[in-house]
Amino acid sequence: MLIAFNKPYGVVSQFTPDGSPHRSLAAFHFPARVYPIGRLDADSEGLLLLSDEPEWNERLLHPRHGHLRIYWVQVERAPEPEALRRLEKGLTLQGRLTQPCRAWSLDPQPELPPREPPIRFRKNVPTGWLGMQLGEGKNRQVRRMTAAVGHPTLRLMRVRIGNLGLEGLLPGAWKILTEEERKRVTAKGSKDPLVF
């Protein structure tokens, strides 16, 4: 089985507690013997897949398959076109060049359920939203990329893997994917806008 989960903020991508104050996946009552495919940090939200089928690890995580992931990122200050170009070209982070990606301003900003706790608010520092489509996912990569171009990440949500999105899945909810939805996970991705 393959499960889509809309992981809330403050949840670690593992079933056993890690000693932090964060909740684990065990709090969401998944079927037995499933495990997360990949991960989202505790302070990231959005689409996380779980499965009891080991072949999904290879199909989704091995770099040669290059499945695309789309993130919506709330950052400090609205990024200028030059910052978006730098993100798309690739950046050197921790001695390694990131792969080229797509980056664009989200205007209008997405209408999302409020995060608990809310992001920090600073009256003198406006925020902006951008979309990023990546074919790789190194540890905290999106956060490091936006910080490198002068726009620290305030809220990060993965909204799509392949052509499977979060549409209709509220934070903390999960569903077992149909055969048609499973095929969408490994599709090459779409430039279509997402609708919640």
Describe this entry's structure for a reader.
It is built from four helices and eleven strands. It has a single domain, classed as Pseudouridine synthase (2-Layer Sandwich), CATH 3.30.2350. It is globular, with a radius of gyration of 16 Å. With 196 residues, the chain is an alpha+beta fold. The C terminus is likely disordered. Strands 1, 2, 3, 4, 7, 8, 9, 10 and 11 form a nine-stranded mixed sheet that branches. The chain has a two-stranded antiparallel sheet with strand order 5-6. 16% of the residues lie in helices and 28% in strands. The longest helix is centred in the middle third of the chain and has 9 residues.
CATH H-level homologous superfamily name: Pseudouridine synthase
**How many discrete domains?**
1
Q: Summarize the biggest pleated sheet.
A: 9 strands, mixed
The low-confidence runs, each spanning 5 or more residues with pLDDT under 50, are 191-196
**CATH level-1 class:** Alpha Beta
Quickly give the structural class: alpha+beta
User: How many helical elements?
Assistant: 4
Q: Mean pLDDT across all residues, rounded?
A: 89
SSE order, one letter for each helix or strand: EEEHEHEEEEHEEEH
CATH domain topology: Pseudouridine synthase
- Strand percent estimate: 25-35%
**Cα separation of the termini:** 24 Å
| Overall number of strands | 11
* Radius of gyration (Å): 16 Å
CA-based shape = globular
CATH architect. name: 2-Layer Sandwich
Offer a quick outline of the entry.
By secondary structure, the chain is of the alpha+beta class.
Which tags fit this structure?
alpha+beta, disordered C terminus, Pseudouridine synthase, 196 residues, globular
